[in-house]
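To whoever picks this up:

The parser on our side crashed when reading a file containing two proteins. I've narrowed it down to the boundary between the first structure block and the second sequence. Both blocks are reproduced below exactly, byte for byte. First block:
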Amino acid sequence: MPNGLDRLNALGKIIPTHPAMRPKDSASLIILDRSGAEPKVLLGRRHEDHAFMPGKFVFPGGRVEAADARMPSASELDPHAAAKLMQGASARKARALALAAIRETFEETGLMLGVKQHKPPATPGGLWSAFADAGIYPDLAPLQFVARAITPPGLSRRFDTRFFAVDAQAITHRTDGIVGPQAELVELLWVPLAETPQLGLHAITAVILDELEVRAAAGMGPNLPVPCYRMKNQRFVRELL
């Protein structure tokens, strides 16, 4: 596996262009299809007009919203994942991060992950209402917390992103018409892991996929350490949670 720190630091010295700001909590979801001989990952190409990573293939994800913590779920996070998420966050925020990854995935791809039940969940509104309409409760137990990355200071947009991974079997429902030429993601692709370097991914996306490959080789156990990438003294560092 290429050294992730070398790849990130090859971006060059980050020149601060904006006042220091606190990064926004965000979450991304890596959906893996392991039904075939070669595992595939779901990636979406961002619209060229977006200010953040225009035209790049990314995992679905986005900022945590206040309502996320109030959404009922079919299950709770694995205790190992919850404990690592709570290093620097409350139990409420840890749960909200996982739910945000599921909500943002639906918002950007139309894919719902969860468990269908006879009685619809009582939602806090917003996009979560679509889950109630479909009778689906988001399911947190299958999610694995696999990485964390914090945008360097001095940039116009900063995110403290927690990356989750889940098997494609967790997809319960799909709403068509979400992805398209005028949407945030203009196309979705299931890409074999071995072919992702051909997509010209942003460095952090490539690094997270490298980490995922190593984690998969180690058995994808929820008790495995979680790498955290952040900048310290103008160099990226990799710490384990």
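<<boundary where parser fails>>
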Amino acid sequence: MGNAATIAVNSKAWFLGNQGAADKASERGVKPWLLHVLTPEVPYEIPDLRITPYGLSRIDETEGGRIENLGLYIEIGDMKVGYLGDSVIRGPFEQLDMDVLIVPVGGDGVFQVKDAVSLCIDAKPRIGIPMRWSSEEDPKKFTKYVVQFGKGTIPVVMEPDQVLQVYWAAGNEFRWELN
């Protein structure tokens, strides 16, 4: 959850998540009218935004077994973003049409770098963003192998406080800018 509950409380922003995450957010002070429980494969829609959650999981490194969570397929206008959260499972993401794919790398209960790169190769997003890495080498390896094998996927490693702007210029030219 990170600081999502604090952000929701301080800015009165919606909190979207599975039932377990919503329960934790409620315990951390998120008001009931800001909580929106997502159900796997049931789209959540508001004008110009559609979020389809998919049930995924990661490995529980301390107790073994799996921890259930959600991956999100986000459609904002013509832009399509895949966010795998803390996952070690691809789910349907290798088959979805995505402009941007945000994938955890580095093991520790989530994808090994080679598996995250493999997902980018199979899914063919325009941009692949590694997240939740466990060593400084993980995003470097991800970048190296996506450039080498990704055939059209651009790896983008983001630093804290950076913003990635992606958009369609003239309706058919994909553009991006990292600030």
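After patching the parser it read the second block fine. The chain has a mean pLDDT of 91. Residues 137-149 form the longest helix (13 residues).
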